[in-house]
Amino acid sequence: MDGAPLTLLTFVNKDGTEVDLLVETADAREERTVGLMSRESLPEDQGMLFVFEQEGQHTFYMRNTLIPLSIAFIEGEGAIIEIEDMEPLTETLHSADEPYLYAIEANGGWFARNGIAAGSEVRIARATPTEGSESTITP
User: Fold this and answer.
1) pTM score of the predicted model
2) Is the predicted pLDDT of residue 13 greater than 80, yes or no?
3) Quick check: 46 and 22 in contact, CB under 8 A?
4) CA nearest neighbour of 25 among 127, 109, 96
5) Order of strands across the sheet with 6-12?
């Protein structure tokens, strides 16, 4: 994805199977603001991880985003709170009903196709907005 380094995320779906997704990390404000805007395609098993400095109800929209996406909102311990589908080139605001620390965008329907739903867990190799840190968000 645009030559940026990728981080491996591992989800545990409703069947207990592990599913991997490679993501570009957006942990700076400018990176989070741009996200996946203006990209014409996204490989099937790739996406973008948004890392916030603190839990909150941050909002997302699809202005200037050309491809359909699904977004998972994740609390600090790694549990998915909610997943929403987002249509290209719209300004509908998307957010979870509860505060979250991470959001993951993938191709539209990717979470559903892989059996990943609210309550599923995700492990993130580098999950803080600090350069060069190594951590996981699940116990």
Assistant:
1) 0.87
2) yes
3) yes
4) 127
5) 80-86, 69-74, 100-107, 46-56, 18-26, 6-12, 121-124
